[in-house]
Amino acid sequence: MSLKPIDPESALNLYLTDRENEVSQATIYSHRSRLGHFLRWCDDQGITNLNNISGRDLHYFRLWRRDEGNLKPVTEKTQIDTLRVFIRWLESIDGVEQDLHTRVLSPVLGDSENVRTVMLDENRAKAILKHLYKFEYASRPHVVLTLLWHTMMRVGAAHALDLGDYDPKDQSLRVVHRPETGTPIKNKEAGQRFIALSDDVCTILNDWIETKRVNAVEESGRQPLLATPEGRAHTTTLRGDCYRGTRPCEIGIECPHSRSPETCAATKYDEASKCPSSRSPHAIRRGGITYALNQGWPKPAVSDRANVSEGVLEKHYDQRTEQEKMEQRRQYLSNL
């Protein structure tokens, strides 16, 4: 096989362009970020042609990235697994030797290491939503955190919602995959669904639409539900709402990390994620799923509402303790 010279940056750009029609935009962003470390390493090593990359080089990169990034095992595995996918793609365009991807050795994790457990728990969620209801009623952050907690949807799905996707009479939201106008969702058509809403959530949405929402219209004619003066709220904006809204100091709770609000960097508008107690949209979603399970929702119902398979739900989202699971099973004793 005759390899065709290709530099790391060109290879990454071609790879991401090739995958744009296969995966969500969020996945593209993630792969660009993870593989950006590989480009930095290539630059440090003076590697300008990936034809010359060997299995030993890839091992050296893995060790470099582990030390340089001080990575947890699960993070290291995620980044190395993405590198393997990239190397395999390079094989398809004659950029590296065939089967090189088989020499990308990914860490083997134990069951407990492969599960993320950070979530927004029930008590904090209720306190945050109560605070928002009282002091920031029907604001964008109030709507965003309410939707993510109660519907268990991903931030990408919230970003994709249009005004017309909300049906106040039917009390429901429609999640739709619209890649042609810039709002793909995870799982594409398989992620499309209707989500029932409670009276309280509908009241907040109705008031948001009537009193706070900006009347934004995109070039495609679409009207985003979560609109800003600049148009559809970007996922970065929605994540910021989550990080800012979940800081303890935001709702008047004393800082559990002994920081002073006057000097803490996390109190700045764009630095909220630096607070150890702030929570990402995914942690809010995980908390909402766990809360629903604790309330006795059947797993198939949670699976359909959150658009996650029951197997993934069991492994990655169900954060109930074994004792909590036992107490829920207790209700069935009378049937024995």
TrEMBL record:
<dbReference type="InterPro" id="IPR044068">
    <property type="entry name" value="CB"/>
</dbReference>
<keyword id="KW-0238">DNA-binding</keyword>
<protein>
    <submittedName>
        <fullName>Integrase domain-containing protein SAM domain-containing protein</fullName>
    </submittedName>
</protein>
<dbReference type="InterPro" id="IPR050090">
    <property type="entry name" value="Tyrosine_recombinase_XerCD"/>
</dbReference>
<keyword id="KW-0233">DNA recombination</keyword>
<keyword id="KW-0229">DNA integration</keyword>
<feature type="region of interest" description="Disordered">
    <location>
        <begin position="315"/>
        <end position="336"/>
    </location>
</feature>
<dbReference type="InterPro" id="IPR010998">
    <property type="entry name" value="Integrase_recombinase_N"/>
</dbReference>
<dbReference type="GO" id="GO:0015074">
    <property type="term" value="P:DNA integration"/>
</dbReference>
<dbReference type="InterPro" id="IPR004107">
    <property type="entry name" value="Integrase_SAM-like_N"/>
</dbReference>
<dbReference type="GO" id="GO:0003677">
    <property type="term" value="F:DNA binding"/>
</dbReference>
<dbReference type="InterPro" id="IPR013762">
    <property type="entry name" value="Integrase-like_cat_sf"/>
</dbReference>
<dbReference type="Pfam" id="PF02899">
    <property type="entry name" value="Phage_int_SAM_1"/>
</dbReference>
<feature type="compositionally biased region" description="Basic and acidic residues">
    <location>
        <begin position="315"/>
        <end position="330"/>
    </location>
</feature>
<dbReference type="GO" id="GO:0006310">
    <property type="term" value="P:DNA recombination"/>
</dbReference>
<feature type="domain" description="Tyr recombinase">
    <location>
        <begin position="115"/>
        <end position="330"/>
    </location>
</feature>
<dbReference type="InterPro" id="IPR011010">
    <property type="entry name" value="DNA_brk_join_enz"/>
</dbReference>
<dbReference type="InterPro" id="IPR002104">
    <property type="entry name" value="Integrase_catalytic"/>
</dbReference>
<feature type="domain" description="Core-binding (CB)">
    <location>
        <begin position="6"/>
        <end position="91"/>
    </location>
</feature>
